[in-house]
Amino acid sequence: MPLKLIVHEPISPLDNIVIKLFEVLIRELDDILLLIESHDGWDGSNVRVVVKVKSDEVVEKVFDAIERVERELGLPGKIIPDIVTPDES
Description:
Blueprint: H1 13-29, E1 33-38, E2 47-51, H2 56-73, E3 81-84
Helix pairs in contact: 1-2
C-alpha cells in the first residue's frame, strides 16, 4: 500500500503524537488502516482515523493504541479520536 505523509507548517505538538500513533496503528491494523490525520472536529476530536471496517475489535485496537502512545509520551487524554470508514468521512 502506498504511504503518503503530508506536513503542513508549522508542525504542531499534536502532529508528533499523530506520527507516534501511526507507528503503533500500522502494526496493529495493517491493511485495515487507511488514513490518520490531525484535525479539528466539531465534536472536540483532534485525530481522525479512517479504517476500512469499523468493528468493535478495530475500535478497541485503536483505543488501546491511543492509550499506549499517551502513556509512553506522558500525555493522558491528549488524543480524542474520530474513528470512521471512508463513507463516513
